[in-house]
Design a protein that fits this description.
alpha+beta, 60s Ribosomal Protein L30, Chain: A, five-stranded mixed sheet, binds iron/sulfur cluster
Length: 401
């Protein structure tokens, strides 16, 4: 399994596969052809269907600037080797093509070039699945976060602390900003209103949920407006884990060390899904993004309360199991509806899953690995309309005026 650094990526939203990946590809291509006077980029598959709403064109233009670039959205070409494909072409000042290269945005901000062998980041963990992680923890009688520190080195704590600070900054920015999100949907930012508006006769429980949701909205709205966030595991699902950690840290005053441990545990859950299935909505629907984020947050919450490895696994399993079949249907291709609200609901689910796991431990029959496999198979069976093409579901029925 790869490093947690491959999972938690810090960058600009709104989509790890639609902005961070294309940004990387643009940087790579412009490095290959420094003599190019202008570029042409053709987007295929999900990038063509939802690229405008995901700001794919804007991030490519900004990365290649000041050189001009034409963007083509090709929704005709089918049978693609990967659902997120882009072709870059570079031309000299006389219009002579200097070269071309195809890239696939394979999720989580990672890319793969067409003519290059599929390379995976170096494995730092000798585990194939979560069962092996648990077995190791049992043999060594250690916590799951200790496994992360042992295999990645103690310096991973600094990285995770940086991740936590970035997550908090995104929440504070989001809570502090009002107005409309970019795009045609004219979606109003709601985090600040949610945080500050106290309804009459508000029960303490309702207040807690309101704050938790406000924090999830804050990150998701920052993501939707191209702000800097942390993929957890993706941009679209970046609000769930920070909301749960931020809300509980404020409530219980957890130390940064504790939050770092929780991020380490959440990371192990995330890379398990990434390695054995997918965290890409274009590949396996929203269950792969929000489902994984909920599982990561549920595991992290358990770690905050010093739950056992078994309870952590159970919480992650519950969280993912009940998101199975969740479709990806962002209206207009914007990572706004249903994405933002979905992050808020998922943060509540994460807390519920953690609570349930702690009480029902020892009764379960389904392992986390089994649910990961089920999620992936379900994702492959999902009609393409429900895999980030904005062709089905809410995206098909809601008409953008
Ligand atoms: S619906 Fe889910 S998977 Fe699709 S873009 Fe929104 S958050 Fe991501």
């Amino acid at each position: 399994m790869e490093s947690l650094k491959e999972l938690y990526k810090i960058g600009k939203g709104p989509s790890s596969s639609h902005t961070m990946g294309p940004e990387r590809a643009a940087r790579d291509f412009s490095r290959l052809y420094p003599r190019a006077a202008r570029f042409k980029v053709t987007l295929y598959g999900s990038l063509a269907y939802t690229g405008r709403g995901h700001l794919t064109d804007k991030v490519i233009l900004a990365t290649l600037a000041p050189k001009p670039c034409g963007i083509v959205f090709d929704t005709e070409k089918q049978d693609l080797p990967h659902p997120n494909m882009m072709k870059f072409e570079g031309f000299d000042e006389h219009g002579l093509r200097l070269g071309k290269k195809k890239y696939y945005s394979i999720g989580g901000g990672n890319i793969r070039a067409e003519d290059e062998p599929e390379t995976r980041p170096e494995d730092v963990y000798p585990f194939a699945n979560f069962e092996e992680i648990l077995r190791y923890a049992k043999e060594k009688n250690c916590t799951l976060d200790r496994i992360v520190y042992d295999f990645e080195g103690e310096e991973i704590k600094d990285f995770l602390l940086y991740v936590w600070h970035t997550m908090q900054s995104a929440i504070w920015r989001g809570i502090d900003t009002e107005g409309l999100l970019p795009g045609e949907l004219k979606v109003v930012r709601k985090a600040k209103t949610l945080f500050e508006t106290v309804p009459e006769h508000e029960e303490p429980e309702a207040l807690e949920k309101r704050h938790l949701c406000a924090f999830a909205f804050a990150t998701s709205e920052e993501n939707a407006s191209g702000g800097t966030i942390v993929t957890a595991p993706t941009c679209g699902a970046s609000g769930v884990l920070p909301a749960a950690l931020f809300y509980l840290s404020r409530k219980h005053g957890f130390s940064e060390e504790k939050v770092v441990a929780a991020l380490a545990v959440a990371g192990l859950i995330g890379i398990t899904v990434k390695q054995n299935a997918s965290v890409s909505g274009a590949e396996a629907g929203c269950q792969a993004e929000i489902g994984t984020a909920t599982a990561m947050a549920a595991g992290a919450v358990c770690r905050l309360f010093d739950a056992s490895a078994d309870e952590i696994e159970y919480a992650a399993e519950i969280a993912l199991e009940h998101q199975l079949g969740l479709t990806c249907d962002p209206i207009g291709g914007y990572v706004q509806i249903p994405c933002i609200e979905r992050n808020a609901i998922a943060s509540q689910r994460a807390l519920s899953a953690a609570a349930l796991a702690r009480i029902l431990k020892g009764t379960r029959k389904i392992s986390f690995d089994l649910i990961v496999k089920t999620m992936y198979e379900t994702g492959k069976d999902l009609n393409a309309r429900y895999r980030e093409t904005s062709e089905g579901g809410l995206a098909a029925y809601y008409k953008v005026s």
